[in-house]
Predict the structure.
Amino acid sequence: MRRVGLGLLLACASVLPGCGDDATQAAVRTAFEGYRQALLDEDGERAVPFLDRSTIDYYQRLRDHAMRTSRDELQQLRTIDLMTVLLVRHEMTREEVEAMDGRALIVHGVDRGWIGREGVINLSVGEVTVSGDAATAKILVRGKPTPLRYQFRKEDGSWRLDLHAYMPVAETAFQSLIEESGEESDAFVLRLIAITSGRKADDDIWQPLDR
């Protein structure tokens, strides 16, 4: 249960299916498999090059929230974003986060298992749709098709996974888990943080690191 992380919630996207040429399909699959293997190995440095700029920018915003955002402002975030911010505050010092950017936060999250193997261990990609520098790929679970799809962007000549695009659907999944638990949202988040980190969070977690 320790490595629950956020990876469980990130295999979610909703786009139209289609197909791409063989070379592009192979390149997209290679990008996903490279990212997947990096997560399985908990190797953040290897994982980051397979992620697009919007994903890195997203983690930069989460880093900034951890540094500066008040409790009242945090409550306006999506719950899945709130959890990441609080986990950063719970697990890291102000000096550590201050020295990070979005890329470094992803590296740390993969290394620590926050963005982890549970989300990808049984996944692969199937048919690929290409439209210019954007692509989507059907998600397969243990080789079987699902209604879900990944999104990819071609940047600097390489296909990269767009995790940021998953977040609205991931939030819906997260809210379903909270509803099923019967807990208040904040209580559920704090319990999941305790499971992920191995220790209970105190109330100081709600205060900005840069205070």
Remarks:
- The CA atoms of residues 14 and 149 lie 6 Å apart.
- The radius of gyration is 17 Å.
- The longest helix spans residues 22-40.
